[in-house]
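pinned: reference chain
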Amino acid sequence: MSTQLRRAVTSSFLGSLIEYYDFLLYATASAVVFGKVFFSDLDPALATVASFGTFTTGYLARPLGGLLFGHFGDRLGRKRMLVLTMSLMGVASFLIGLLPGYAQIGPLAPLGLVLLRVVQGVAVGGEWGGAVLMSAEHAKTRRGLWAGFTNAGAPSGMVVSTLAMSGTAALTSEADFLAWGWRIPFLLSIVLLAIGLFVRSRVEETPAFLATQKEKRRRIPLVAVLRERPRALVLGVGVGLSAFVVQATLTTFVLAYAVKQGHPRPEVLNALTLSSACAVPGILLWSALSDRVGRRPVVLAGVVVMAGFGFLLFPMVRSGSGLLLVLALVIGQGVIHPMMYGPLAALYTELFATESRYTGASLGYQLAGLGAGFAPLIFAELQRGSTSTTPVSWTIAAFCLLSALCLLALRETSHRAITPEEPALTHEPEGHRA
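pinned: its structure tokens
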């Protein structure tokens, strides 16, 4: 492992951790805090829907961030954009920690929350593609594993964010937590930002991007993607949709559902922390396996298993057993979801040409990410006026079916060369043919 690859992987992992600490901290807060702080004038059920609605705006902004930073990342370089995305995210999260609630400034409070959430969405939309490419384009072998470290940063960020939130909740009373305690994890973002920028400054630009700088012909990246790889883009979005729907189900919707079923908030947050910690090795394991057997078999196995597990998840949560709650989240987030999610980092990278790869990978990933933005909102609506979770389970299964069909239509990508130094395989490994 070369020095630059080690720095690139470390930077991508840490950058992803910080970005998702901020982005998913909002997810946790939207489930347990924001409805009471920023939508206190609404009926509790409507406040939950409204809170998840602001959560959704961040996902709506992510494709915009992917397009914006992807364009300039393909033109000016991956590293410059990554410094900017990290700065935007850290500042936005810090400002959320300072934002007054509805009781202080009325409707301006939820408006300010939405605007800062949009900035978060734009930032994380540009972060993921650049971070994945920094690792993948520096790697000459085991691309799935090294790119997978960026995806492993997401549950790592969840671990840190839920520890910060649950730790603050444990050290404060219920009233103090709602009044000011929840703000502390957001304010800590500025410290993480300083650490992340230092690490990221030591990474060099990728060899693949530098090679494109020698070419005279430079097309608009988005136009290149839409003209040359439209099928890959559409199928890539379909492949990733179920992973994001499941991610939001396990990290956001189940939190609110478990609390409604009588589980204490600290117990729910602790279960989420443990399952997120299990997801880190899970993502790296399945990503490494995808280097050996291909991206498609690993992801396909994950979506098939998750389609069935969706019908077991909610009965386990509403059983009232803390042990079953932990088991449900660990199996779902720590074992099955990593199969669907881990290999996506390398897969999206391999779908597009170098000169438009930042744009293509970011756009495909972030459009798929809309599934995570809308899922909690849809599920919250399905729960209004009904106690049955069967429609939610069927919705999860439907998204898994869609991803399975897209996977079957997509050619295996793990054999493709994406860097100037990397030799392409002369044949596709057994089982890699679409």
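why pinned: Confidence is low (pLDDT under 50) at residues 423-434. The first helix runs from residue 3 to 32.
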